[in-house]
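BUG: 3D viewer hangs when loading the predicted structure for this chain

Environment: internal workstation, default settings.
Expected: structure renders.
Actual: progress bar stalls at 90%.

Input used:
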Amino acid sequence: MTESSQTEKLIADMENEVRQNPASVVARHRLALAYWRGERMQDAMKTFEEALEIDPTSFEMRINLGSLYFQSGDIEAGIEQNKIALQAHPGAAEAMANIGSAYLQLRKYEDAASFFRQAIEKKPDMVPALTNLATALVELNELDEALEIAEKAARLAPTFGLAWNNLAVVKYYRKDLEGAAESLERAKELGYPVHPDFEAKIKEGSRD
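Structure tokens produced before the viewer hung:
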């Protein structure tokens, strides 16, 4: 059985489960996940919303719905779902980091940095939040703090290529071209898809 046919069977099974148990939040949640796996995004969103009508406080379903909105390109709706999750579960670092990532995508760097800092306050070793905070700080020209944060991320996750790539970016903007080249080489060794234009900028700068 192919993966596609397995997914179709899973969806059919979950649809049947929902018909038999229409008030079951778990059944609707599982169906929404099955739709998501089958790339039926609108069906997945609708089913998550139906499940949340039954249990509006479910953190996992709210976060999943937010992720679906992000994936579909509706960033503001994704932010709203994560903020609702935060209202029901204050201090949830995952929701804070999700909101920060969305603001980063919208180029609202001060908002992004604020939410990443809140997430890190709750989970100091949350590497994705640290890495993204470093990116926001570069955009805000807060390069000393960006370096501190990027170095911490690389130290905590030495095999995380994105952390090394972002450390290279910070060093580049601080005009540490040798350090940038070293960090970028580490990212490449870890299999991170380094942008060729950025690599060229470092090499050109090193020759100046």
